[in-house]
Write a structure and sequence with these properties.
about 200 residues, alpha+beta, Umud Fragment, subunit A, 2 domains, eight-stranded antiparallel sheet, four-stranded antiparallel sheet, 4 helices, elongated
Length: about 200
């Protein structure tokens, strides 16, 4: 009888050790490596729909810098308890302008095949038609892909890089849309160097 009880005790302890190990591993991954997020709202249609589940990497920007075209999750400048998902349009030092519904960065008009509608501006918002915004050091300019339905830098201005939780790199639900998230920007537009009017402009 004692042998049976001892065997059961050891079996239970083995299960508990496994559960604790898996739980600890999950906590470490969640806090330091990546976290799951659910998209809420229509601000990123058609790229992401409300109800989509995604993975957000917390280590991407420890290994490389921000890139134009990346999709990021960040804390709302209005309420840090709320998380936003948007696309990076401008990096520190960039001049971002919306003129007559067309977006340009450092004088280069963006080919935005990923957006659902024209880029509008909000009355009383941060961005003004035809007026460039120079992105301050340590900040990024973000927009949602569903421009008429997105509260973003057009409304509240650039956001601090420190508010970014991570880089959206994978969608795991729904099943018919599972896969990695690709940056739609041409390679020459992603980095900190743009070829503009025949010479190089480098931004730190």
């Amino acid at each position: 009888m004692m042998r049976i009880l001892k065997g059961m005790f050891e079996f239970v302890m083995d299960i508990l050790e496994t559960v604790v190990f898996i739980g600890s591993l999950f906590i470490v991954v969640y806090l330091f490596i990546m976290q799951p997020n659910q998209v809420k709202g229509a601000s990123m249609d058609p790229t992401f729909n409300s109800g989509d589940y995604i993975f957000t990497s917390k280590i991407t920007y420890k290994m490389r810098g921000f890139e134009r075209g990346d999709v990021v999750v960040f804390k709302s400048p209005k309420n840090p308890d709320i998380e936003y998902i948007k696309r990076i349009i401008g990096l520190p030092g960039d001049e971002v302008m919306v003129k007559d519904s067309v977006v340009s960065v450092n004088g280069i008009v963006l080919d935005e095949g990923y957006i659902s509608d024209k880029t509008n501006l909000w009355e009383g918002g941060f961005s003004k038609n035809g007026e460039p915004t120079k992105v301050p050091p340590g900040e990024i300019f973000v927009m949602g892909d569903n421009r008429p339905r997105s509260s973003d830098s057009r409304e509240f201005g650039p956001v601090p890089e420190s508010s970014v939780i991570g880089h959206v790199f994978y969608r795991y639900f729904p099943a018919n849309k599972v896969g990695t998230i690709n940056n739609p920007f041409p390679v020459k537009l992603r980095s900190d160097i743009l070829i503009l009017r025949g010479y190089f402009l480098s931004f730190s």
